[in-house]
Amino acid sequence: MEKYEKIGNQLIESMGHLDNVESVARCYTRLRVRIKDDSKVTTDKINKIDGVVKAFSSDGKLQIVMPEYLDKVFDYINAQFVGESGVSKANATTEKVDKKREKITFKHLLNGILDAISNSLTPVIGGLAMAGLFLALLNLLTVSHLVTQGSQTYRLLYLMGNSLFYFLPFLVAFGASRYFKTDTILSLILAGIMMQPDFAKMVSTGGGIHLFGLPVAAVDYSTSLIPILITVWVQSLLEKVVDRPAMNKFGLLKMFPVFLVMAPLTLLVTGPIGQGIASVIANGSLWVYDEAPVVGITLLSLLIGFFIITGSHWVFFPVAISNLKRLGYDPFLWAAFAVWNFAELGMALAILVKGKKRSVKTFSVTAAFSIAASGITEPAVYGLMLKMKKPIIPSIIASGIGGLFFGLFHVKVFSLVTVSILSLPQFINPAGGNNFILAVIGLLITTAVSFVLNWFWGVDESMFDEDEIEAAAEVA
Questions:
Q1: What percent of the chain has pLDDT above 70?
Q2: Which of 24, 182, 365, 367 is the most exposed place for a label (fewest CB within 10 A)?
Q3: What is the pTM of this model?
Q4: Cβ pair 338, 439 in contact under 8 A
């Protein structure tokens, strides 16, 4: 038996077996599992499994941080959860079990929305990072005059980096279809309706658009996330209506009734509603930025660690992408991600210098390198900050101070990349100016403040033993 299979089986057993699983997803470093009954999950056992840095479970959500084996373990567990036919084995085994109707509460609804956004975006995150870094490097080539802005070379390079953002509805449709368990091809067709070049021309030329006399909103859906999310969700509801044994005799045309309804509904209802919601959220964030940028960014920078720790930070991505599309930059949300990453970098460096145990120093190097090279903070957050407890307050204060600096000097980000030392070109303004210099100064201040505060706050290694820390260092 392969090692990842052994780890996968241990995880399945510790989460109450497949019967207790509703869905399985992943991001960069975490396995995300929707649980039916939290009481059946034994996080203590999960935390002792080889490769697991940290596991936590609440409100039906189990998150397992395990960077080293995540790819293969996820594939293995997902293969066990979903059979070759695409039917959930967990659902198949519990089909005849009477379940109490779950009470719908605001908290339950909010968790559902966050899960839908997070899991639908998960397959896209790697592409976003690559495309964002590509555009950041293009900015660097432009300001260094190696590439002339407006030239054919520039336009072609920009086209390469921007293609993912322009066709984002297709990618989100793919991720959403997997989360909502819908027909993926149909979801992509609905995204294609939004992105159809002829429809885009009708929108760009202006004037009224009508379907059977009904008004169609003239909306540019490129780079939009929420419209296709809502569309695929409604698609999933309709598919449940037609997903009956009697419909199987129609073969390939089984989903045609769904398409017949969803095709016009996409342009008449779900797309415009989604765009309206997206506009309200984006305009709300920009209003906060316009009215009180310093207060808004500082507050968000103080709270962003909580969102990242709970895995709910993905909810900010649609807003940041919307800002990037409308303004050419994000002036608000990405600042919080940036300063938090460098606050954690300062913390890891302070622990590296002040720590006494060799294994603590080894793990601190790993955590610091992970942030500096790729912007991944989980090893530092779970392996150092939350484990030691004492670094929590200094890290939050440093992040808030960094946010204050970014707010005071109106620092902006011009491409969405996980913030690290290597991705700093994302702060370069193609039109020139000192935004990049201000960003570097702000991040240096954040790192320095975090280092100093954590140094004087002290490093408590008493809750670790050598073997435990060495195992954590190997995982990260």
A1: 87
A2: 365
A3: 0.68
A4: yes
